[in-house]
Amino acid sequence: MLAMLEASGFVCCRDAVDDRALARLLGACAPIAGLERSRSRSGATYGIRGLLWSSTRLRFELETSGVSALAQSFLGAAFPIDAIFFDKQLDANWSVPGHQDRLMPIETGTGVPKTIRNDVAYAEPSTETLGELVVLRVHFDAVGPDDGALEVVPGSHRRGVLETDAIRAVPLSDYRPCVVGRGDVLVLRPLLLHRSGRRASAGHRRVLHIVYAATQPSDGPRWKALPHSGLQQTPPSPSLGRRS
Fold it and tell me: What are the backbone angles phi and psi of residue 228, rounded to the nearest 5°?
């Protein structure tokens, strides 16, 4: 699977998380009352940023569910540096144009932030550092082509950081929808060009999006410290932006 990830920039791990673990992960993503980083529309919460700092359960559940172990199978060592929950539904529907995931949370004072989101500084690491990260998208629902599925341009991560005009020049026909089932985990390189459309049917497209690193960057800002841990140089012992 590592060879496929390097060649295509993405790979789908089928049935990677069982129903019990999915239920525990979903509980860890539940919005905290009054939390500003919870985004709601029509009474429905559709996005929660900064889960690594707002949910004390999440890192534990990532380990016990096997999600962190899956990340380690690609990186050799891995610890989470960001986590976001999305719930695309008819009452909270959206489309996202083609883009790369290039903003990552950094420790205050270790670099110049590009933006501040819910009191967390985000900066764009070097192309080399971005190329060393993996994103794991845990799916709580089956997603077909008409369900607001993530669409990717295979191999586009190998082009490095793309300017806006270059991204806009990529035809929609180059994008391929990622059809997934409940419990599947889509593994991506952050520089893989991706987009998503609006959901055309009732139901949910709930996704937990986690970014993993193997080490602290050697050429730029430090990853934001996780709660009660200090800045991590190595991942914990395994126990196995932008909306998309």
Answer: 60, 20
